[in-house]
Amino acid sequence: MSSATSAMKLALASLFVAHAQANSFGNSWSLPAPSSPNYIRVANSTLIVPDAPNPIVNELALWTGMGMSNGDLVQSVTINQPGDAEGGCGNVGSDYCVVASTLDDGASGQSIGNGHGTASPGDSVMFSYIYNEQTSNTDQYAYINGNLVSTYSSSNGAHANGFGTAEECQDGTPCGVVPQHQWTDITFVLNEPDESFADNAGGNGYSGGYMSTPDGGTTWYVSTVTIDEYDFS
């Protein structure tokens, strides 16, 4: 196994370990943390909302997340499920519920943020994660088509140890067929420059993901990551 592949797998493990026993994961793209003591200060990403999974039989979440140094998982989520969607949106049908949240290390479950919104296929859902120097928390902001719908602040004193996209099927399977979809306008700001930050990006069932930096490794841009269709049957 190459060192790049090993690092990518460790990045995925740090993001998904809290879910792994119960839930199933599809295709993904991820980045390990920059070299310690460096960390991700800002991570922005935009999901072009796909059609609902076919059929709609279980809770399916599309998200980007950051594994934190204290074991938390910062993850704003886009959820489709039968009946009332987790996050407070009610029955969303073939749409998705958008809410900021954190899976707290050692806690009994997810902490749900303030507010929520409903996104339809074709909408743009932006997740913004920002380390707040004044509070030492990581602040989350979730937008639908530019409108702020949910916020949450968590993980006091912790720093981001990695970033990844996810397709998550609650309680294993089935979750139907999840259509191909895109994450666009992905931006990272590191605490310190790291020209090798992009070297270990990887995943499975994706295309794109080319990373560029205009300032020697502090700010990084990714135009598009396309996540392939995945069958959770």
UniProtKB/TrEMBL annotation:
Keyword annotations from UniProtKB, A to Z: Signal
Signal peptide interval: 1-22
Designated name of the protein: Concanavalin A-like lectin/glucanase domain-containing protein
